[in-house]
Amino acid sequence: MARSGTRPTTTPPVGGAGPGRRAFGRSARVALGRLWRRAVVPALPPRPPGPPPEGQPRRSGWTRVLGVCLAGFALWLLLDAPTLQHNAQVSPVGARRTVSLDILGPIATVSRDLGVSHLVSVADGILGRTGNRPGAGAPLHPRALRPGGLRPHPSPVPSTPTTAPVPLNRHPSAADPLRVLVVGDSLGIDLGSVLVNDLDQTGVVQATLDGQVSTGLTRPDYFNWPAELATDLARDHPEVVVVMIGANDAQDFPGPPDVPFGTSAWDTIYRSRVASFMAEATGQGARVIWVGMPPMQDPGLSAAMQRINGLVQQAAAQNPDVVYVSSWTVLGTPSGQFTPYLVENGQEVNVREPDGTHITPGGAQVLAAAVEAAMRDDLHVSL
Amino acid sequence: MLFPTIDFAIFFLVAFVACWLLNPYPTAWKLAVIALSYFFYSWWDWRFVFLLLAATVLAHLGGQGAARRRAAPRAARVWLIASLVGLLGLLGYFKYYGFFAVNVDNVLHGLGAGRLVPLVQPTLPVAISFFTFMAISYVVDVYRGRLEPARPVDLAAYLCFFPHLIAGPIVRGEELLPQIRRRRDPAEVDFSWAIWLVMAGLFKKVVISSYVSTAIVQPVFSAPSAHSALEVVFAGWGYGVQIYCDFSGYTDIAIGLALLLGVRFPVNFDAPYTARNLQDFWRRWHITLSRWLRDYLYIPLGGNRGSDGLVIRNIMITMVLGGLWHGANWTFVIWGALHGVGQCVGHLRRRRRIARGLPAVAQGAWRAGWQRFWTFQFVCLGWIFFNASSFSNAWALLSRLVTGWGAGSGLVTPLLVLVVAGVIGAQFVPAGSLVRLQRVFSEQRAAVQAAILGLVLLGITTLGPSGVAPFIYYRF
Questions:
Q1: Pairing state between β A341-344 and A347-350
Q2: Beta partners for A338?
Q3: Which residue in A293, A368, B182, B282 has the most C-beta neighbors within 10 A?
Q4: Mind telling me the catalytic residues of B?
Q5: Whole-angstrom Cα distance, residue B462 to residue A119?
Q6: Is residue A208 helix, strand or coil?
Q7: Beta carbons of B165 and B157 less than 8 angstroms apart
Q8: Do A73 and B9 make contact, defined as CB atoms within 8 angstroms?
Q9: Counts for chain B of helices (H) and strands (E), in that order
Q10: A136 contact residues in B (CB cutoff 8 A)
């Protein structure tokens, strides 16, 4: 690397393929050479020669910094490729995922051969990161998609339940509290944070919240909600399970073959997963209150949520132990449009976050009241 | 584009090479910085690039107009005020309009005047609080004569320079503009310090902040009534650790990245949990915001001059507005007011001690320890309001401190205690002790340095979770 304070002279170019190309190639090389030399020559008065001041770290030239960083990055890529490959696998289906997997596949194979991937599981053990958690769900079983056995299904239309919910007829007390479990994605956390506190303050409810950001039922390879629910059911033995999941579910099922969101095949798989999830809870004797997604500011996302809500309603209609609570008009306008503000008890309340998706504490309070009303009216729980 | 992502790593690689190749050509360097920074900003939402551009134009017009202060002071003042109104108008509309509209409407409705203020909820652009404050400092500094007006291209590069763009540090014109104007020495990159900052920042953010957030802060803050008093105590301390590691981690990375490009940023954190009182805390926490509030709000209000009443007024206005700067929510107002009240009490005690001929702050090792302990507890009490989703959420947490004793505390694990204690304890390690480590690193061969870098990165990604949450201060 040049360390001189004087600017070097331009060296005459040599070589070339032909007259025209030679002229072009020569001038380009001259320009590039000049640029390169000017770039690596100190622009400021040069530092006095010799070692740096006593005790101070040495400085480096930028090309050396670039080389060290690239080599360090390449080493990390090699060592950490299996983790990166897994992260790519659980990312949304699309070109980015495909390209990432294509690049990381061969590198990850080399890395596995070196046995470095074992380090990750050791670190997880030290940090207590065992079991189900976002980013580390169960691998997708190829049969989970059942591509051959799918029947075309009409686009979902909000349906009315074909079965009336079976009441719980419960009169909880402080000595015999009602056990409630709230599970959900980030919107479920928005609701659950308020609902759990509301219920706990009644003094007759023991409520717990299990919220997992960026999760849903579409990608059990990212986060396995059925496994999580099984753990929750075994630990808490809830009598009522409140579910608010779906905001992250408007994405393709990864294949092969991928099943695109918006197709009837996708609807069939998703409805089946929702029904299984409901049955998992009701099979353990719990009643399920499934809270639908509210309208979103983004029209595309809002339409997707409406589609998902329709599928959930259809699944709920088939299970008498499930109550579906719509948030569509609870957090939207009477016509079902997105609104950031509502009037509640004469006061204007900001119900949605500025991102146009999440629910503010004020909005969660409104929605929690609807869930509590469903507990009282549909499940006949005295709160 | 978050710093700890592959996307950003690729972006920075391009930016690094482009900036150093263009280093000999000042104008091309500045244009490249502007293009790269606008691309970086557009990654979130391309529409807000025009907002950044508008803030730059307002600052430029204000600076040019304010520079006429000697020839036409009145005109200069008009330009200054017009520019500030424009800049604060943008910030006010995008960040605070919805909050004030709801509150004003509800008051008017309560008075029987009906709902007069139209309700809209603008999308909050990232970084608006930061680049607006930088633009204001530039215009005011030019008006005060501390800074000569910058060329448009210099000003644009100063305001949008991507390492500081999203969440600071809030760099002043006098610090950054000269570095933008002159060429940087390509043979004098402070690599060992820069790489230390970037790696330390990544470790704090990806490993520590994420772990503490998941282990205690999120579960307790989202359902206080389901947790014990001890868990609430650790959630408060844990959030203190989380936000420190998150925000100081971000600024460490920002300062390190700028250093790799040959640009120096001011320090933003100086072991804040070693502070002996709140005044000391604000000299160590988010230093570039503290000094902004001091120089552009507190001192113009009158500062320490005048009676105790006036000083208390100035402190409270500064701290409440400082709280509101963080977000349009009453919890931030309460957080700011809490720190304001604490500072007022400290101010009165100091004045009383000085009047008695005593040192402003009581001396002695035990007293210092006692002061540090209680300052940390007070700061963590404030963090409860800062992180609470609502006032009732904060109240539920605080009430558990009274009613929650005796319940199980399964979230308070030995590892959590170790991490919380370790982060606080690490602040007492003298900063100078790191220089030797950097020197040893700087003297290694390139291959050894690359191996160290690769292994440290592996350690960070192995210990961290699979996904990284956005930095807390991205919201502000």
A1: antiparallel
A2: A332
A3: A293
A4: 326
A5: 8
A6: strand
A7: no
A8: yes
A9: 23, 0
A10: 466
Tell me if A340 and B119 make a contact (CB, 8 A cut-off).
yes
Q: For residue range B64-88, what is the model confidence (pLDDT) as tens digits?
A: 888 877 678 888 889 999 999 999 9
How far apart (Å, rounded) are the C-alpha atoms in residues B186 and A37?
Answer: 11
Residues of B in contact with A129 (CB under 8 A): 465
> In Å, how far are A21, B21, B47, B362, B392 from B222, measured between CA atoms?
68, 49, 33, 40, 12
| Count of beta carbons in the 10 Å neighbourhood of residue B237 | 25
- Which residue type occupies B456? V
The residues pairing with A181 across neighbouring beta strands, listed in sequence order, are A208, A241
A200 DSSP β-pair partners: none
Structure tokens at A382: 């005295």
Q: What distance in Å separates the CA atoms of residue B158 and residue B273, rounded to the nearest whole number?
A: 31
Q: CB A44 to CB B124 under 8 A?
A: no
Task: Quote the DSSP letter at residue A332.
Answer: B
The CA-atom distances, in angstroms, between B94 and each of B51, B271, B332, B451 are: 10, 33, 17, 46
In this complex, do B442 and A348 lie within 8 Å of one another by their Cβ atoms?
no
- Beta-carbon contacts below 8 Å between A and B: 229
The backbone torsions φ and ψ at residue B267, rounded to the nearest 5 degrees and listed phi first, read -70, 145
* CB-CB under 8 Å, A134 with B102: no
Asked whether the beta carbons of residue A42 and residue B226 sit closer than 8 angstroms, the reply is no
User: Measuring CA to CA, how many Å separate B159 from each of A25, B55, B292, B475?
Assistant: 39, 9, 15, 19
Cβ neighbours of A60 in B, within 8 Å? 187, 189, 191-192, 442
Q: What sign does the CA torsion over A157, A158, A164, A168 have?
A: positive
192-231 in chain A: CB under 8 A from chain B: 192-193, 196-197, 200-201, 207-209, 211, 213-214
**Terminal alpha carbon distance of chain A:** 77
Locate tokens 């001038």: which residue?
A27
pTM: 0.80
Token couple for B178? 């000269």
Q: Where are the alpha helices (DSSP H) in B182-228?
A: 191-202, 210-212, 218-222
At residue B27, φ and ψ (nearest 5 deg) are -65, -45
Concatenate the DSSP letters of all residues of A16-63 into one string. -SSHHHHHHHHHHHHHHHHHHHHHHS-SSPPPPSSSPSTTPPPPB-HH
Query: Which of A 344-363 lie inside 8 A of B, CB atoms?
Result: 346-350, 352, 354-356, 361-362
Evaluate whether A353 touches A364 at the Cβ level (below 8 Å). no
- CB of A376 within 8 Å of any CB in chain B? no
Query: Could you please report the per-residue DSSP string of B372-440?
Result: HHHHHHHHHHHHHHHH-SSHHHHHHHHHHHHH-TTS--TT--HHHHHHHHHHHHHTTS-TTHHHHHHHH
Q: How many CB atoms lie within 10 A of CB A158?
A: 15
Domain boundaries, chain B: 15-184, 191-463
Angle at the Cα of B300 (from B298 to B305), degrees rounded to 5? 75
Please report residues of A whose CB lies closer than 8 A to that of B448. none
Angle at B186 between CA A72 and CA B15, to 5 degrees: 60
pLDDT tens for the 383 residues of chain A, in order: 333 333 333 333 333 334 444 555 566 666 656 654 554 443 444 444 444 556 677 788 888 899 999 999 988 888 888 878 877 877 777 788 888 888 888 888 887 777 766 766 676 666 666 555 565 555 444 444 443 333 333 333 344 445 567 777 778 888 889 999 999 998 999 999 899 988 988 888 988 888 888 888 998 888 889 999 999 999 999 999 999 999 999 988 887 788 889 899 999 999 999 999 999 999 988 999 999 999 999 999 999 999 999 999 999 999 999 999 999 989 999 888 999 998 888 788 889 988 889 999 899 999 999 999 999 888 888 77
